Amino acid sequence: MNEKIELWFPTPIYYSDNVLGNEFKNKQETFLNHHYDTVRNDYMNVDTSHSLLDLNVHHLEKFQSVFDVIDQHVNTFAQKLGYRHKLKCETSWVNKSYKNDYLYPHVHSYALISGAYYIQSLKEDHIHFMKDIKDMKLLPTVNNDLNHRSISYSCVTDRIILFLSDTLHHTMKQKSDFKMTLSFNYK
Ligand SMILES: [Fe+2]
Known about the structure:
- This protein is α+β, with helices and mostly antiparallel strands.
- It contains two helices and eleven strands; from the N terminus they run βαββαββββββββ.
- It has helices spanning 24-33, 64-80; strands at residues 13-16, 44-45, 47-48, 89-98, 102-106, 113-120, 126-130, 150-154, 160-164, 168-171, 178-186.
- The strands form two sheets. It has a six-stranded antiparallel sheet with strand order 1-9-6-11-4-3.
- The model has no long low-confidence stretch (mean pLDDT 95).
- Bound molecules: fe (ii) ion.
- The site of fe (ii) ion has 4 residues, from loops.
């Protein structure tokens, strides 16, 4: 026996903590105090500034230094994934969400790398990633590196999570009273 099992078609997820370091408290205040025009619907059951008219948090001068840091993380990830051009932020928005809010499973279109930066959140809340929502294969008895179909990451304050834009993701009913997330698309 000299059989081999190889892992192909990975779903890379990048994350980093203490993203803003000493700058965090100051920038958190700036995000919390800024006024966003938000909407809410059944699909995005959060207060979101995601609209076709205003996806430009990254164009605001007061958030420039935050996006400088996010740029570094996104481009580090992109380099690891084999991309050699400098990725630029195309769209960005803020979600304010409350207990029992949720985001329906979705992907981000017309981008390469998408992500979330947690301005205020608790580790009890998670972002969930799925390989394939239609995967109804027989469940394995033992979970291991050969059969993962989904993975969850805690939404820790001052954490950045990056993923390829077509990676399916969602949130469950929120446990904490308030959460604020900056989301963005790069290409
Ligand atoms: Fe998303």
